[in-house]
Design a protein that fits this description.
Shape: globular
CATH topology: Deoxyribonuclease I, Chain A
CATH superfamily: Endonuclease/exonuclease/phosphatase
Number of helices: 4
Strand content: 25-35%
Number of strands: 12
Largest sheet: 6 strands, mixed
Helix content: 10-25%
Length: about 250
Amino acid sequence: MPFRVVTLNLEQDHKRWEERRPLIEAEIARLKPDIVGLNEVSIPLQTARTLRRTASAACDRAFNLVQQTRVNGLSEVEGEALLSSFPVLETGNLDFRTQDIVALVARLDIGGTPVDVYVTHLYRSIGDDSLRLFQAQKLLAWIESRDDAGQAIVCGDFNATLEKPSAALMATRFRPTQTAPTAFTPLAGAGGEISHPYWPRMDRCIDYIWVSEKVRVVASGTCFDRASADDATLWPSDHAGVWADLEVG
């Protein structure tokens, strides 16, 4: 039976968080996901905990939260998170030892089938891809060390289009469920500032749900990709998200 996975970079608590949070909550209610991967959750505001309650109420079932903060100074600022309505069998984390970036994994029991779901956020999208390539290599090696589950899903902001070496390496082991543009939306802060003003809006896919060979993609697309009806500069985040209906077995 298909289950729905969603991933989104939350842009921490920047750019009018309290105004755009209802847009995120409304989209979660519309999508009714089973699994949600979140990048840049705000540690001071505990936004992952807030969205766990949102998902539980909107989907009328309890969600579990797995969260991993970044390391060193960023441990008090942001982290990665996973919401799951499926039982969590075990969790783990990886410190890339570069730019305080981490990954998390939760092994979920999906209808009796163990599936590893990873969430990560690779190095920023400006600059050389070599650091992201190193991180992709480390991530794949970690996944390989945990291959006893047999099926895996990787969610997150990879900050690279498919022609970049880092994303191309991921594509040798996993399939992206879709490649429509996810970055960057016209979300503006209170002073009108936007993320990465030197790039066009929504011209590249850098956010993915990657699936291993035995995971079947039923349908996929983008989400969190509509502005407020009352303000064309107010979007759920500076990234669009990705949703996918998947099957395992």
